[in-house]
Write a structure and sequence with these properties.
Helix content: 25-40%
Radius of gyration: 17 Å
Strand content: 25-35%
Order of helices and strands: EHEHHEEHEEHEHH
CATH architecture: Alpha-Beta Complex
Low-confidence stretches: none
Structural class: alpha/beta
Shape: globular
CATH topology: Maf protein
CATH class: Alpha Beta
Number of strands: 7
Distance between the termini: 7 Å
Mean pLDDT: 94
Number of domains: 1
Number of helices: 7
Length: about 200
C-alpha cells in the first residue's frame, strides 16, 4: 500500500506529474522564507546545486514537522547561468532581461527533491539538465513575454519547455522531468525499491 504522500509545494506542474504517475498525494505548501535562506547560502558561497538542495530540504522539513507519519516531498529548482543564479522574474522587464541573458547560451536547470518522514531526511536527488537557447532578437523576446506572461511569471528562467517555450531552444541535454522541476524517474525508482507499488 502506498504511504501517505504530501507535496510541500504549490507547483501545479509537480502536482500534475505525480497525479499522472498514479501517485495519490496531498498539497501542503511549506511556509519558509526562501529569500532569507537563499541570501544566507549565497553569502556562504553555496553552489547552485547546494542552493537547490537546501531549499528543497527546508520545505520538506517544515511540512514534515506537522505531518510526521507522511512521506513529505520538498522540491526546488535553480537556474545556473555560468555560476550566476537566476530567480523567478519580478516583472515583465526582468523576464525580458533574463531571456536576453540566456540567448545563444547554455545554462543548467538544477532540480532537487528531498523526502522527509518523521522530521528526518530519507532520500534526496539532485538532477541537472543543460539547455541551449537559440539566438533571439529583442522583438522576439518581448513578443514571447507579452504573449505568455501569465504562464511564465512564476517560473525560473521565464520559459516553460512543456509549452511554447520549447521553441526557444536548440538543444536540451538531460531528463525532461528534471526540466519540469521534479526528478520523477529517480523518485519512482526509490518508491519501488521501498515496496510502495503493489
Amino acid at each position: 500500500m502506498q504511504s501517505r504522500l504530501i507535496l510541500a509545494s504549490t507547483s501545479t506542474i509537480r502536482a500534475e506529474l505525480l497525479r499522472r504517475a498514479g501517485l495519490a498525494h496531498e498539497i501542503v505548501p511549506a511556509r519558509v522564507d526562501e529569500a532569507a535562506i537563499r541570501a544566507a547560502l549565497e553569502a556562504d558561497g553555496a553552489t547552485p546545486r547546494d542552493l537547490a538542495d537546501a531549499l528543497a530540504e527546508a520545505k520538506a522539513r517544515r511540512v514534515s514537522e506537522r505531518f510526521p507519519n507522511a512521506l513529505v516531498l520538498g522540491a526546488d529548482q535553480v537556474l545556473d547561468l555560468a555560476g550566476k543564479v537566476l530567480s523567478k522574474p519580478v516583472d515583465r522587464a526582468d523576464a525580458i532581461a533574463q531571456l536576453t541573458a540566456l540567448c545563444a547560451r547554455t545554462h543548467r536547470l538544477i532540480s532537487a527533491l528531498v523526502v522527509y518522514q518523521g522530521g528526518a531526511p530519507l532520500w534526496r536527488h539532485v538532477g541537472q539538465v543543460r539547455l541551449t537557447m537559440h539566438p533571439l532578437s529583442l522583438p522576439e523576446i518581448e513578443r514571447y513575454v507579452a504573449d505568455h506572461w501569465e504562464s511564465i511569471r512564476h517560473v525560473v528562467g521565464c520559459y516553460k519547455l512543456e509549452e511554447h517555450g520549447v521553441r526557444l531552444f536548440s538543444a536540451v541535454e538531460g531528463d525532461y522531468f528534471t526540466v519540469l522541476g521534479l526528478p520523477l524517474i529517480e523518485f519512482l525508482t526509490w518508491l519501488r525499491a521501498r515496496g510502495e507499488f503493489a
